[in-house]
Design a protein that fits this description.
Shape of chain B: globular
Structural class of chain A: alpha/beta
Number of strands of chain A: 10
Distance between the termini of chain B: 46 Å
Low-confidence stretches of chain B: none
Shape of chain A: globular
Oligomer: heterodimer
Strand order of the largest sheet of chain A: 1-10-7-4-2-3
Mean pLDDT of chain A: 94
Chain lengths: 468, 206
């Protein structure tokens, strides 16, 4: 389904849509307060962008360096061309270790590869341990936001879900009570797990290690008890130096949730004694994106979610309307690049307001890319008929002066005199939730001409002193 | 098979690399944010993220302050890796399997230094027999030298060598979540509370 039709379903429940909007704006405001507390914020963004661009320009060398250093520390490094290969590698490692129960911390990459359904189909118990992810997992949904997976769910619904699955009191909706129930439930799973799977926030080429950031401590618990840790990362997670982490850790949590840093920023270098650490480097379309100059900067993304929290369309349409692992502005670039046929409506879920570009901690030119993405889809003949016709119509209107003038004057008259039902009919999609502005009496050209005339008269009029 | 995937990925990446871009020299830039009193700032930020900092002259004072905490008094299973602060009700050295630490109510651990800008403490697996001690106990106290507070993350990374430890990291406050309607709840999966004892007569890092 297209974004507009799914968004329509979401906005049908008006109070919920408004609540969702406000919840995300609250996070955006927290981000603003944090960003303004760091005097060198813009400098940090500049550095982050430059570090990422440098890394991308030498990505093969840095990947090889990372692999070499990680292996020297005793980790095993795997490479996966796509999601299927990634899943097969995970399956193979789990099989070799006789694993049945897996705990997973939040990893957008494993969502992207659909690891959970794959492992479940092979008989594994896979438990998502991030609270938000556990909620959507129990509800058999996907996350609607990359940092706040359950942002679309009301606490009463969490209460119902936990009552059904965890045996909490019926009707309970207190977040403290529900969080405590999840804590107890997940502690058992942590202690019973045979393996822990995590994502990677940043990998360091010069050391061969990586950093995982969480607030809940779920990634750390998940990999500190069992003897097997599998870390899954996209190729673009690499940074050259340990000191680069300072820049990125200063930016990440402030941009994501408005915190000075996440509670836990864990650095992993090699396996625990007597244990195994596997790192899977996943391409899954990233090398293809790197080959496209107009879109390659989207690989700088550190998955903070700031562009979603600020996006007026995302806030009002909900993450699920994007039908994409990564929704919002950045998802509307990354996903159509991979599956343009399915996701051609996404770059149009955007007003080109540029707010995403303003908040992006790594300075991705998001709204420029979203515009370029529309051209990318048009060149592949993937724009719908209504969009194409509208473009043709507007193009004709704007390139012929007489049509433009006539249409303008006709619209000014018509909007004033036509009965309401004639303007706000099913053909006028814009009029569904908003009124058109009051039409001015004169066109801009007429107003300009009148203004010029008045100015000329004032100029020609004798000055005051001459009158005396 | 994975070998060929590696080659395929690297070859594809090399086939159309972006033009080279310079890696910024972070030491030549800045100046980065500093604070009039980094220790005071650390305490403020730590409180903002749900932690508590108690400054004491000596380890003996830290031990006394710890003894006053109701959570410590109420704890049944306790462990401490800091000599002179608290005590252990189990022999940590005798534990091979980290799962055996499941019921620890309170752990007293040590941190190397603190960061003023974000209330974080640098911890490593060098000072604990099992890294899970940072995450599994119900409550934590971390002992740091009060003199060792850096202003910002750049200074922090300048003084550590991250690859020396299989595990190291920053901990800023107790574990938390806001996944249910953005309501902040302290005590998600990790520690429910974090008390930091900043000790004056610990002159250098642990």
């Amino acid at each position: 389904m297209s974004h507009p039709s799914l968004a329509q379903e979401f906005t049908a429940d008006k109070p919920r849509a408004q609540w969702h909007d406000r919840a995300l704006w609250f996070v955006r405001e927290k981000r603003d307060r944090m960003a303004s507390g760091v005097p060198e914020w813009e400098e940090l963004r500049q550095h982050a962008s430059a570090i990422k661009q440098h890394t991308m320009s030498q990505l093969p060398e840095y990947l090889e360096m990372f692999e070499r250093n990680a292996q020297a520390l005793g980790a095993q490094v795997h490479w996966a061309v796509d999601g299927d290969e990634h899943n097969r590698i995970v399956h193979q490692i789990l099989q070799e270790h006789g694993v049945r129960k897996v705990v997973k911390s939040k990893s957008m990459l494993t969502e992207e590869c659909h690891l959970n359904p794959f492992l479940e189909s092979h008989g594994y118990e896979v438990i998502d341990t991030d609270l938000g992810e556990r909620i959507v997992q129990l509800r058999q949904e996907s996350p609607s936001h990359i940092v706040l997976p359950a942002i679309h769910i009301r606490k009463e619904e969490v209460g119902e879900c936990f009552h059904k699955h965890l045996g909490t009191d019926a009707g309970a909706s207190d977040p403290v009570y529900l969080t405590e129930a999840a804590r107890q439930h997940l502690r058992e799973r942590f202690c019973a797990a045979d393996a822990g799977i995590t994502g990677v926030n940043f990998a360091i080429a010069e050391t061969g290690g990586f950093v995982v950031c969480t607030n809940e401590g779920n990634a750390d618990l998940g990999v500190s008890l069992p003897k097997l840790h599998i870390a899954c990362m996209g190729l673009e997670k690499l940074l050259p130096r340990a000191t680069d982490l300072a820049v990125f850790l200063r930016l990440l949590a402030r941009s994501a949730t408005g915190q000075p840093i996440t509670t836990y920023s864990s650095h992993f270098h090699g396996p625990r004694e007597g244990c195994e650490l596997h790192i899977i480097l996943v391409d899954n379309g990233r090398s293809g994106i790197l080959q496209r100059p107009e879109f390659r900067r989207s690989l700088n993304c550190i998955r903070c979610g700031a562009c979603m929290n600020t996006c007026p369309v995302y806030r009002r349409s909900g993450g699920h309307s994007y039908e994409s692992t990564v929704p919002g502005p950045i998802g509307s670039i990354l996903t159509p690049l991979r599956t343009p046929e399915i996701h051609s409506s996404l770059p149009f879920a955007c007003t080109l307001c540029g707010s995403c570009t303003d908040v992006c901690p790594v300075k991705i030119d998001l709204h420029h890319q979203l515009l370029a993405m529309r051209g990318f889809l048009d060149r592949r003949k993937l724009l719908g008929m209504s969009k194409k016709m509208a473009m043709k119509f507007v193009s004709a209107l704007l390139s012929h002066r007489w049509i433009y003038t006539t249409a303008g004057s006709a619209a000014r008259t018509a909007l004033r005199w036509l009965p309401r039902f004639a303007v706000y009919n099913p053909l006028n999609g814009w009029g569904r939730q908003r009124d058109l502005p009051e039409p001015p009496a004169q066109s801009f050209r007429q107003q300009y001409a009148a203004h010029q005339e008045m100015a000329r008269r004032n100029r020609d009029a004798p000055e005051d002193k001459d009158l005396l | 098979m994975t070998e060929t995937s590696r080659d395929r990925i690297l070859a594809k990446l090399r086939s159309a690399l972006p033009e080279s871009a310079e890696l910024p020299n972070l030491r030549a830039t800045g100046p980065w944010q500093t604070f009039e009193d980094p220790f005071v700032r650390f305490c403020e930020v730590l409180e903002g993220v749900g932690g508590v900092c108690v400054r004491v002259p000596t380890l003996a004072d830290a031990d006394r302050e710890l003894g006053r905490l109701t959570a410590w008094q109420d704890a049944t299973v306790k462990v401490s890796v800091v000599d002179g602060v608290g005590c252990s009700t189990m022999d940590l050295d005798a534990i091979d399997d980290p799962h055996d630490l499941e019921n620890v109510d309170f752990a007293v651990l040590s941190g190397h230094f603190a960061v003023a800008e974000n209330g974080a403490i640098w911890v490593t697996d060098r000072t604990v027999p099992h890294r899970v001690l940072y995450f599994l106990p119900q409550r934590l106290a971390i002992v740091i030298p009060s003199t060792q507070v850096v202003h910002n993350m750049h200074e922090a990374y300048d003084r550590v060598s991250i690859s020396e430890h299989a595990f190291a990291g920053f901990i800023s406050g107790p574990s938390k979540t806001a996944d249910i309607e953005q309501s902040l709840v302290i005590g998600a999966h990790g520690a429910r509370a974090l008390t930091v004892f900043a000790v004056d007569d610990l002159l250098s890092e642990w």
